[in-house]
Design brief:
45% of the residues lie in helices and 7% in strands.
Length: 163
């Protein structure tokens, strides 16, 4: 029981007795409404980041942007799925930061979206490899200095000359 005559600071609980638990310590979890709002905002940012990574990774081989006479009919668009995989990895890393913030809903959603993006990147890379839709080296074309530039695919390590 509390003694009404004892001086007591206002607002602070008084614990007396053997079976009274101590106050909760440590950090509290993020409130649910804030957690859901954070999850929705990050979901939008994740979508924008994945689309941007996909668009930045597209290889536009055969495109001649400054040639007014070019019909650009031989343009090959081949996405580089590595960029999308990196974006998924960044999403998974931000999930660790959200867990440190103690935002449980945002953490779970971030992990699910990150795994989905990484799986989509791996699947896209496997489909491209199966179909053989990687961009071929571009044909020789004029360079900015007036000469002709030819791209040669890498054929392995150079052979040593015999003496």
């Amino acid at each position: 029981m509390t003694d009404p005559a004892s001086p007591r600071p206002p607002g602070l609980p008084q614990f007396r007795g053997d079976n009274v638990p101590p106050p909760r310590g440590g950090r509290r979890w993020l409130p649910l409404a804030g957690d859901i709002a954070l999850a929705a905002g990050l979901l939008v940012l994740d979508g924008i980041g994945a689309v941007a990574a996909f668009l930045l990774g597209i290889d536009y081989s055969g495109w001649k942007p400054f040639d007014p006479g070019a019909d650009n009919s031989d343009v090959v668009l081949a996405p580089n799925w590595l960029y999308v995989g990196i974006a998924g990895g960044v999403m998974l890393l931000t999930a660790a930061l959200l867990y440190r913030l103690r935002a449980l809903v945002s953490t779970c959603l971030q992990v699910l979206v990150g795994i989905a993006v990484v799986v989509a990147a791996v699947a896209g890379a496997q489909i491209d490899e199966h179909r053989g839709t990687r961009a071929e080296p571009s044909a020789p074309g004029p360079s900015a200095h007036g000469g002709t530039v030819a791209t040669v695919p890498f054929q392995g390590a150079p052979k040593q000359m015999e003496r």
